[in-house]
C-alpha cells in the first residue's frame, strides 16, 4: 500500500462541562512547549521519538490495556482537558475518546496519526465503519504517522520545528531499517508457511506488507469485543484443517478460551504473547514500538515454522 499524506492537525475547541479531576495533573510544560497526550502507549513512543528531549509525551491508556474494551475514567477527562496536543490513531480506533472530548473544555490540537492512509475493509459486518485502523502493524505506514505527528508538533510549537524535523527524519530511517529486518525474517519462511490465524482482524496490514495469507480469525471483526457464532467457529476449524496453518496467534490481552477450543479441534497450537495494541513495561518484551514489532515478528516466524 502506498503512503499518502494529508494534513492531520485539527484545532478542537469544546465548552467545558462539569468534570472535576479525580487526580492531580502533571506540572505545566515549559512556556511555549505543548503538553502532549497520546491515546495509546505505542503512539506515545512513536511521538516521543519525534519530540526528543523537548517535552514528554504521555499515553492516556495504561500499559497492557485493550483499547477496544477500554472504558474512560474521570481522571482521563482531566488529563485530556489539560492537554494542548492530543494524538489519536484515527480511523475510528479510539471509540472510547468521544465521551471525553464531549465533556472537557479548552483548546487543543488533535493530530490524527493515520490521516492520509487508505484503510483496508473488514471481511465481516463490523462497527468500524471507517475500515481497519491497525495501520501501525506495518512499519512502512508508520512513516505517515511520523510525518503527521511532526507537522502537528511544528504547528503547536514552531520554535522546535528544526528539532522535530531532524528527529522525524532519524526515526523514519529506523522504521525503514525495521521494515527491512522484518522482511528478512519472513523470507526464512516458504510461501506456503506464511499463513496467519488470529484472535480478531488485526494483522491485515502486516499480512499485506510481508506476503502472509490470513486463513481466518477467532472473532470475525476488527474489534476484540465481538463474539463469534457457533457456525463461525466451526467454519474456522474447517478452514484451519484445510490450510497449512499451525498456530492461532493471540495478543497478550486476549481471552484465550475460544482460541483454545478451536485449536484443540483443529489440532494446532496457540501462541498468546503477541503485543499488538500496547507496549509493555521497560523490562518487558515490547517496551518500544520497534521492539514490539521485532518481538511479534519473532513469534510469528517461529510459530509458522512449527
Protein model, in words:
The chain has 306 residues and is an alpha/beta fold. It has helices at 41-51, 74-82, 97-102, 139-156, 161-186, 204-210, 230-241, 257-266, 289-305; strands spanning 9-14, 36-38, 57-59, 85-88, 106-112, 195-198, 213-217, 247-251, 269-274. The strands form three sheets. It has a five-stranded mixed sheet, sandwiched between helices. The protein has a two-stranded parallel ribbon with strand order 6-7. Helix 1 (41-51) packs across helix 5 (161-186), helix 5 packs parallel to helix 9 and helix 7 (230-241) packs across helix 8 (257-266). The longest helix has 26 residues, at 161-186. Mean pLDDT is 87; it is low at 1-7 and 10-28.
| Total helical elements | 9
Query: Can you tell me the CATH superfamily of the largest domain?
Result: Nitrogenase molybdenum iron protein domain
Strand content: 5-15%
CATH-assigned fold name of the largest domain: Rossmann fold
Number of strands: 9
Terminal CA distance: 29 Å
- The coarse overall form would be globular
Provide the succession of SSEs.
EEHEHEHEHHEHEHEHEH
Helix proportion of residues, in percent? 25-40%
Give a short account of the largest sheet. 5 strands, mixed
The Cα radius of gyration reads: 20 Å
Q: What is the residue-averaged pLDDT?
A: 87
CATH architecture title of the largest domain? 3-Layer(aba) Sandwich
Structural class: alpha/beta
Count of domain modules: 2
Low-pLDDT ranges: 1-7, 10-28
Please state how the strands of the largest beta sheet are arranged side by side: 1-5-4-2-3
**The CATH C-level class name of the largest domain:** Alpha Beta
Amino acid at each position: 500500500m502506498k503512503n499518502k499524506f494529508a494534513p492531520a492537525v485539527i484545532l478542537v475547541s469544546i465548552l467545558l462541562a462539569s468534570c472535576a479531576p479525580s487526580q492531580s495533573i502533571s506540572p505545566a510544560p515549559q512556556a511555549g512547549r505543548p503538553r502532549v497526550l497520546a491515546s495509546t502507549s505505542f503512539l506515545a513512543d512513536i511521538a516521543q521519538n519525534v519530540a526528543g528531549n523537548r517535552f514528554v509525551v504521555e499515553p492516556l491508556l495504561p500499559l497492557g490495556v485493550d483499547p477496544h474494551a477500554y472504558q474512560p475514567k474521570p481522571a482521563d477527562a482531566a488529563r485530556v482537558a489539560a492537554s494542548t496536543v492530543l494524538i489519536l490513531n484515527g480511523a475510528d480506533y479510539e471509540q472510547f475518546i468521544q465521551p471525553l472530548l464531549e465533556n472537557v473544555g479548552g483548546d487543543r490540537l488533535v493530530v490524527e496519526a493515520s490521516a492520509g492512509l487508505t484503510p483496508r475493509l473488514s471481511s465481516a459486518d463490523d462497527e468500524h465503519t471507517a475500515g481497519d485502523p491497525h495501520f501501525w502493524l506495518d512499519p512502512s505506514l508508520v512513516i505517515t504517522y511520523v510525518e503527521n505527528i511532526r507537522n502537528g508538533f511544528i504547528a503547536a510549537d514552531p520554535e522546535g520545528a528544526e528539532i522535530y524535523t531532524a528527529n522525524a527524519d532519524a526515526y523514519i530511517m529506523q522504521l525503514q531499517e525495521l521494515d527491512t529486518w522484518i522482511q528478512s525474517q519472513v523470507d526464512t519462511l516458504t510461501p506456503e508457511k506464511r499463513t496467519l490465524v488470529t484472535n480478531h482482524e488485526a494483522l491485515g496490514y502486516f499480512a499485506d506488507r510481508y506476503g502472509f495469507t490470513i486463513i481466518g480469525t477467532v472473532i470475525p471483526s476488527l474489534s476484540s469485543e465481538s463474539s463469534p457464532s457457533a457456525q463461525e467457529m466451526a467454519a474456522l476449524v474447517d478452514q484451519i484443517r484445510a490450510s497449512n496453518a499451525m498456530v492461532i496467534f493471540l495478543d497478550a490481552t486476549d481471552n484465550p478460551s475460544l482460541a483454545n477450543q478451536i485449536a484443540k479441534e483443529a489440532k494446532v497450537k496457540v501462541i498468546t504473547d503477541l503485543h499488538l495494541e500496547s507496549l509493555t513495561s521497560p523490562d518487558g518484551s515490547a517496551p518500544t514500538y520497534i521492539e514490539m514489532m521485532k518481538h511479534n515478528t519473532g513469534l510469528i516466524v517461529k510459530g509458522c515454522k512449527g
